[in-house]
Amino acid sequence: MSNDPYGDRGNKDWSVGNAKGQGSIMPKASGKTHPAPGGPFLIGDSMTAGYGAGPDILHDCTIAVDRGEIAVIVGPNGAGKSTGMKAVFGMLDMRKGHVRLDGEDITGLSPQDRVAKGMGFVPQTSNIFTSMTVEENLEMGAFIRRDDFRDTMAQVYDLFPILKEKRLQAAGELSGGQRQQVAVGRALMTQPKVLMLDEPTAGVSPIVMDELFDRIIEVARTGIPILMVEQNARQALEIADKGYVLVQGANAFTGTGKELLADPEVRKSFLGG
Amino acid sequence: MDLLNAFIALSNYVLIPGIAYGSQLALGALGVTLVYGILRFSNFAHGDTMAMGTMATILVTWLFQSMGLSLGFLPTALLALPFGIAFAILLLLGTDKVVYKFYREQKAKPVILVIVSLGVTFIYNGITRFIIGADDQNFLDGQRFIMSARDFKQMTGLDEGLAFKTTQGITIVTAIIVVALLFWFLNKTRAGKSMRAYSDNEDLALLSGINPERVVMITWMIVAALATIAGTLYGLDKSFKPFTYFQLLLPIFAAAIVGGLGSPVGAIAGGFVIAFSEVTITYAWKKVLGYVMPEGMEPDGLVQLMSTDYKFAVSFVILLIVLLIKPTGLFKGKSV
């Protein structure tokens, strides 16, 4: 029995309620931001955080990405990789630590205000509007923009030519790899200053994975810093400028991608020798 | 055999009333389906929202009538309709602020909101009866028929008359306009697309910068307009009685579920399916069959499958059949 009065008990009857698609991000008002110059472009600095009143999941964890870089977070299952990303995006309760973006402390901002500040986020699952067409997905990505976004859309179509072909098809009808492209494309439509990807290659075939990595490198070359969580640690670290190995919600190893790949400890524990 | 007269009789008693009733149900079901799709619960208060909106329209109609305002051969209620809609919008936004918003902020599960809406139903219901009374109210004026049965007979020389009431004409025309506007809004405008995005995936909508509270507000405003229009048209066509509007909830929900909850096209199709089922099953077919059957084989009885008292049973049975055979409804809504 749960103590949560608004819990999930008795909610399987879809004739009365449409729980599918219901959000999990709790609405919250934004606090103030203040200038905090110096440091990397985006940093979640010594974050201690958890969900609601639950226990801490992150313990003094630091994740950062600088201009023109790809930073990769790897680690075993349940290490808090996705949680770390969510904490940087303001989707859970920070108990200690700060998030700074471009010389500004944004710890108090709500996720939607972080979007407005120029952060783009691609969640791991449910990262597209399945019932809407590819083009509508991109339009929704550009929702906060009031200017003409056709240029950006053309850029996204250049980056992912398959999407242009399928632009009038419902996004839910696409293959796994194509969906991920829609998801990344949607996030690019805001013209973010930093892009955060939560396991962009989850559930796609190895060939598609290679292609997605190539695309991500291409995005990074346009100058957008990328912070991503990745299951395929070896491949991800190969393209990473900076790597974070998390274990049980804390930083275990930090270094450039090459350093981590060469580190015998990291190899033994996380890369299979 | 007299197919022409049979067709006229069929049109007069089944087709035209069925289309008019179907349009009213479709407008009601659209409101239900929008709340289900976007606010994620079955809004049991929809019938009484219709009653409240219609009540406001009636009161303004009476005011206009006493002031001598009229629309000529059209009912004065059409002039009062915008005021009714405005009242319903304020009512729903107020209810949302006082009641639903609290639960939305807790991310309460849909089933809780369903029960909350049931409470809202009783309050609306009580207020409606308190203000306008529980009795039948008549607020129809203007010309009663576009074409009366007698005129039709004189015009064509046929035995059967075809009556076309003004209210039926208004219902059909209004329904077409409203549905076209709604679909244009949902599929072509920025706000409409943001509603569909929110319905599809709340979190991602938030991450795209869509303001949930704004989506909810627009939804309630559209639902208020749809409910008031549906209620007023029903009241003009039949009569206004608060309890009837509460009862309308059943065919409206049946329509929304038959069409596929969450699917606007489905709501419209479902509305007509339910309306025609009710009308054809409770209609006494003696007259039409008398024209169609070969001589000597005309039925003696009424050939009425069910008494009109059982019309709600028809909605129920169709609902059951759909849930058993095609749980997602005719138009691939959410699986129930």
TrEMBL record, chain A:
The keyword ATP-binding applies. Keywords: Amino-acid transport, ATP-binding, Nucleotide-binding, Transport. GO terms for molecular function: ATP binding. InterPro entries: AAA+_ATPase, ABC_transporter-like_ATP-bd, BCAA_Transport_ATP-bd_LivF, P-loop_NTPase. Gene3D superfamilies: P-loop containing nucleotide triphosphate hydrolases. Residues 1-41 are annotated as: Disordered. Residues 1-12 have a biased composition (Basic and acidic residues). Residues 42-273 form the ABC transporter domain. Belongs to the ABC transporter superfamily. This is Branched-chain amino acid ABC transporter, ATP-binding protein. It comes from Sulfitobacter indolifex HEL-45.
From TrEMBL, chain B:
It is found in: Cell membrane. Keywords: Amino-acid transport, Cell inner membrane, Cell membrane, Membrane, Transmembrane, Transmembrane helix, Transport. Pfam families: BPD_transp_2. It is a multi-pass membrane protein. The keyword Cell inner membrane applies. The chain crosses the membrane at residues 20-39, 51-73, 79-99, 111-132, 168-186, 215-236, 305-325. Its main location: membrane. This is Branched-chain amino acid ABC transporter, permease protein, putative.
